[in-house]
Amino acid sequence: MASTSKMDSLGEGESVEEELERFDDFTLASSWERFISDIEAVCRQWIADGSKNLLEKGAVSLAFSKRLYKVKMDVKYLSKSYCVEYYFETNNNDKVSDWNCSLHDLQLSFGIKEFLVIAPQSASGVVLDAPEATKLLSAVAIALSNCSSLWPAFVHVHDPSREAYIGIQNMGTVFTRRFESDCIGSQVPIKLMHLEGLYELFVSKFACSTLDLALQLCKVHFTMKATYKTLPYDDDDIQGIDAKNKEPEGSLGDSNNRSQWDDDCPWSEWYSAEDPVKGFELIATWSEKVVESSLEMAEMENDSPHEAEKWMILPKFSPNLSERNRIRFASQLRLLVNALNMSFEAQFMEDFVSVENPGSDNLRSSMVVPSPSVLDRVLKDLFHEGVQLPDIGKSGHKNSRAIKGAPLESLFAQFCLHSLWISNCNIRAIAVLWIEFVREVRWCWEESQPLPKMPANGSIDLSTCLINQKLHMLAICIEQKRELNEDFQDCIGSNDDTSSPVLNDGLVGDNLAEMHVAGKEFYDKRDSPLTVGAKHASASVVSKFEMKPELAVAADIKPSNIFRRGTAGPVGSMMLLKSYQNLHAPFTQEAPLMTEDMHEERLEAIEALGDSFDFSAQLERDILSSDMSAFKAANPDAVFEDFIRWHSPGDWEDDGIGQTGPSKRFVMQGSKDNWPPRGRLSRRMSEQGNLWRKIWNDAPPLPASEQKPLLDPNREGEKVLHYLETLRPHQLLEQMVCTAFRAAADTLSLTHFGGLKQMTTKLEQLYVTLASTLRPFQSNRISGDGETIEDLKRLCNVFEHVEKLLSLAASLHRKFLQVPRLCEAVFTDYYSFYLPRMGTGSADETVQKDFDMKQQVMNNERHVVSSMFTPPTASQSWRKVLSMGNLLNGHEPIVREIIFSVRDSVSNNHYAAHHDSRGLQQEIETYRMYIRGTSNDLRVALSVTSCD
């Protein structure tokens, strides 16, 4: 219908289109109807889309539930804007569980699945005016009815803190369901703190008589869930822990005498960690049962939680678990990386503490130097504690050798760990500590005192860092220096007769027993074991004194007037070329020890001068001369060819007539048919001016015990001290970084965590990551570019993630020591939750706030979980009067949730909505009340189904 009230006022020049623009549509007569129409349009669109299409269009998943999603749309009514939200689940066929932890608050309160919420777009999001709330709910109900939708709709009313809602649901053409919830925040009546009073409150909502409710018999369905919380672990002042951690002396301080949860953890020597598990919540649920009187409810209040059908446990993690500023190994390793970045600014470590250094003012103002008392305590721990040297080869993780650092219990590794905790690990503090460290090492050298935490024997492990190799070399030099300084004459003054040379096969004068004693005393004097089989590839050495008696007798009948010294016994049936005597293998000195840089110098010399035979012999001149002297002493009648046959069989060319020596039968019979052995030197050994022959001619016949040691301890020791005193800062810090990462990881790997598979795998992955990232440091030639430093900082993040998980694993292992299944289950849940965040490289994400994964407690595990709830002491108790029942070891529930319901039988009424796909059940829940009570508040949610 067109408006004609102003037709006469239209000008003649105005078009008909302008008149049509003033057409008024009165099918929507009011803003109220337009508001309902807008809501209806939105609901119809959501119904048409369905859950799958809504997910594709950007439905938002709620954080506390994996199945609940939300979409929203804005609508306007007059000058106000409202937001309509639709909550739905991906699977609408499942029945609503009473105590599902992933339910929305409204789902739990009223037993519904999908629902609508309409709220004003304001700061509070609630409707404070009651008429407005009623009008909003009516508009939504009409819109849903027009859509033939059975969704319940809610409006948030009153003050936000009350969590109050009103709602309505159309259940077809017959039934309507109304909802109401509210909360009492203080001064809860004592009667409503107990099950009996709550039961009577529910019955009063549908009782048809004013008689005493306690005398009425009503079949009420009842189910309950009670949540208990352990007393907080490590409930002392955490600031005291941080204060202890921040002390410059680190592990040496003892400012806090109280016992910590991690006192026996391997990292406790360096820092005290806050317990990541602050406690547990136990959720006990009672299965549904029918109650007919308030007296039954009074009896149920005395029930123990052990009578509950199901137990679930939820760990409560410390809110500080994910904070980056917590003091751990990872935090100190970051500071060490920063020190490495600054180490390229100076040539020597003294430059960082020298007053002449141009940048010293800036260094002094920004970096703290440890006090003399702190330095004394650290050096005392490193050098003067007198701790027994452990088996360094077995310390640390099995994969740690892939990292070029120092073993965990070695001197340099302990120095690096101390450096992490001294004066915030700045470059000046490290420089001061290193200078004092080298001074202590030099004192040990000059006073011939054993170098602590370093082995004084064995071979040098080239897979470790160069500083560790040098310290090992120095420890060996100190030990040899001490031996050379001893007065051997005083030690053997009473045994001068044992210094006489050992007789050969032909003994003259003494009997066989005397010969055995002399041989034993001689072998006790030798410096080093013989490695003939590995070094010379000859036949196995058999000492004469280990032969069978008949062989010894046969050997004794051989004519000989020579004396052998330093012999290890004959070499099989080999005979000397110039005399009819057995060829004896001598005791020889071990090859001199060399560190990695010494090997590199040797290889560089070979590459520069060639690898000719004479040059190779020149490099090994000292070793060759020593071996030749020992061979001459053991074989006085030997010639150069005999030495070659024993030392280098490949340079002796056999004539091919048979064996080179007589068989044992001919030897024992004294036959000379196959003697002398036939053969000749190889071409390179027979050349004119051969260096080996020249060395042979110059070598005196001396046994190894009388030779000058191949390793000059004085020279090599001074070379080690020179290296340590002139080491460039960046070279020191490079090796410190590798060693500190390795030592910190090895320390953590000693943690007992019950063999959790995920933790074991993560530790192994950590070592692989460490070895890969630190591989450029093996050459000691990094440039300190920004990319390398960033790689190290990312490595610190990875280390921190593993360190957090390890502390959590250790804490859970201690608390669930008797129930390892629960320990593994809880840790697996958290590990799966935390694992996606480990790849982000960010260590300060808040992950524990959203963690709410619960684990079921088996019946055989309940006694262990129950023992965690120790009765509170007087100082721990925050209340003197317990207001609720169902106590667990003196603990009342922190939250008790109850659901009362009454169900009525309903026949298949023809008034019911025939389009309801779910149909009308034989029994309908007419009254339902959800109650959530604590010691301070009470929340009640009531839903009533009525027949309109």
Q: What layout of secondary structure does this protein have?
A:
Blueprint: H1 16-20, H2 31-56, E1 60-61, E2 68-77, E3 80-89, H3 105-110, E4 115-120, H4 130-146, E5 153-157, E6 164-170, E7 175-184, H5 195-203, E8 220-229, H6 238-245, E9 277-291, H7 294-300, E10 310-317, H8 329-342, H9 360-366, H10 372-383, H11 411-420, H12 427-446, H13 466-485, H14 488-491, E11 502-503, H15 512-523, H16 532-536, H17 549-556, E12 563-564, E13 567-575, E14 582-586, H18 596-609, H19 613-619, H20 621-634, H21 640-647, E15 652-654, H22 664-669, E16 679-681, H23 691-698, H24 713-725, H25 729-749, H26 757-773, H27 786-815, H28 820-838, E17 855-857, H29 862-867, E18 895-905, E19 923-933, E20 938-947
Parallel strand pairs: 4-5
Antiparallel strand pairs: 1-2, 2-3, 3-4, 5-6, 6-7, 7-20, 8-9, 8-18, 9-10, 10-17, 11-12, 13-14, 15-16, 18-19, 19-20
Strand content: 5-15%
Low-pLDDT runs of 5+ residues are 1-23, 210-215, 235-256, 487-494, 496-560, 657-671, 840-848, 909-921
For the biggest sheet, the summary is: 14 strands, mixed
Straight-line distance between termini: 39 Å
